[in-house]
Amino acid sequence: MRKKIVAGNWKLNNDKHETAQLIVALLSDPIPSDVRVMIAPAFTHLVQAKTLTEGTALEVIAQNMNAATSGAYTGEISARMLNSIGINQVILGHSERRAYYNETDLSLKEKVVTALEHDMEIIFCFGEELDQRKAEKHFEVVKSQLEIALFDLEPASWSKIILAYEPVWAIGTGETASPEQAQEIHAYIRKIIAEKYDNTLAESVSILYGGSVKPGNAASIFSQTDVDGGLIGGAALNANDFKAIFQST
Ligand code: PGA
What we know:
It is built from 11 helices and 8 strands. With about 250 residues, it is α/β, with parallel strands linked by helices. It has a single domain, classed as Aldolase class I (TIM Barrel, Alpha-Beta Barrel).
């Protein structure tokens, strides 16, 4: 049985004070035991977030990392640095990283390997753009993304992979995939994993949906058979909204 997961991607938001305030507000009620709840604050606030969440079920994760473990890469953060402050989970391949920082499935494959070498759990993001959806190419796009970035992994590595299907046209736009659209493509994703590996592995992988999830639509999306939770952007910045979302699982 896959446990639901709700992760908040805070992106380039919240200073030190706002980060602390939001964490305190999220912890004012117990985190339900049937869902894993994660937050991804900025790198600069990860240590503070770890301290504030110590002994609670709220998991603190990173938004990104470099494929290299050390070296001359000014401004970058490594898996080793994250490990050293107790961060063992990372989001990779978010569509904003792909669009603004030229990340590709091939370069993400390297990051995935490095993260796994550092025993990190990965939320791997992928999904089609609007023109690809309109041209009904979304199935082949997600298949190619997964094939390039993940399908060379050994079966055992998949215990560290959480997938986040995020149609680019739904991120930050207010436009959400319908629950049926989400279910259709999540089922397809599980099918191609089963074809590449096997059914048992495919059934064990958590597949999150991301893109304009809000308190009003979370329950209907999360109730789909192959949707195991969500990656939340804008609505994760408001404690009440984020709580309502993870309480909808
Ligand atoms: P959104 O972002 O919820 O603001 O659409 C989702 C994401 O970027 O993961």
